[in-house]
Amino acid sequence: AMLRLRLLTWDVKDTLLRLRQPVGQSYAAEARAHGLQVQPEALSRSFREVYGAQSRRFPNYGQGQGLSSRQWWLDVVKQSFRLSGVQDEAALTKLAEKLYRDYCSSDNWEMLPGAAETLSRCRQLGFRMGIVSNFDSRLEAILSQCNLRHHFEFVLTSEAAGFAKPDGRIFEQALRLGGARPEQAAHIGDDYSRDYRAARAAGMHSFLLRAAGQGEGPEVPPEHVLPTLSHLLARIEK
């Protein structure tokens, strides 16, 4: 059946781009450069705990709570190191600011297989394209650094929208930005509830990027599953 799509919206993290190495390893390497020995595993555990607590206390990067996303992240980084045993406050401030900047750079991100080719082909086919991502304002810079920004008419982050996926209002904003009705749009992402199910609840089509052997998630019709991004074209070019 022809889907008659006009607009494709994309998640970024673990859909188009992924971290080159786990957060704990990057943080530990940066600490070493500042003369501090911290175990990557300890940092990974601390980071998960701190990130979770910060997200619950100050949702959406502190938006509407008097916190900038930059300050939100600096606090997360410092607290992750504190929990891992680093006490030197001057070092913590330096580390946090350096890491906040580093995550804007392509040194920390790599493209998923098939991403560049698939995006180029979708543009050649005349689809309008946009980003819908639970991310902070650094996302524009990251996409530019990784040479992906030019594929998209808009980049909608949860920080800018004021809502995070799976809240349907972020998809409504994306549809307005893309000038499409829900049934003319499809969202592509790797998270079942935030991407696949949330876009469908907003009346859009959606496709779930789910690599083979990724364990059994909830049941999704096979024609909605993408084992790799390169499978998308066969699903939408009908």
UniProtKB/TrEMBL annotation:
<dbReference type="InterPro" id="IPR023214">
    <property type="entry name" value="HAD_sf"/>
</dbReference>
<dbReference type="InterPro" id="IPR011949">
    <property type="entry name" value="HAD-SF_hydro_IA_REG-2-like"/>
</dbReference>
<dbReference type="InterPro" id="IPR051828">
    <property type="entry name" value="HAD-like_hydrolase_domain"/>
</dbReference>
<dbReference type="InterPro" id="IPR006439">
    <property type="entry name" value="HAD-SF_hydro_IA"/>
</dbReference>
<dbReference type="InterPro" id="IPR044924">
    <property type="entry name" value="HAD-SF_hydro_IA_REG-2-like_cap"/>
</dbReference>
<dbReference type="GO" id="GO:0005634">
    <property type="term" value="C:nucleus"/>
</dbReference>
<protein>
    <recommendedName>
        <fullName>Haloacid dehalogenase-like hydrolase domain-containing protein 3</fullName>
    </recommendedName>
</protein>
<dbReference type="Pfam" id="PF00702">
    <property type="entry name" value="Hydrolase"/>
</dbReference>
<dbReference type="InterPro" id="IPR036412">
    <property type="entry name" value="HAD-like_sf"/>
</dbReference>
<comment type="similarity">
    <text>Belongs to the HAD-like hydrolase superfamily.</text>
</comment>
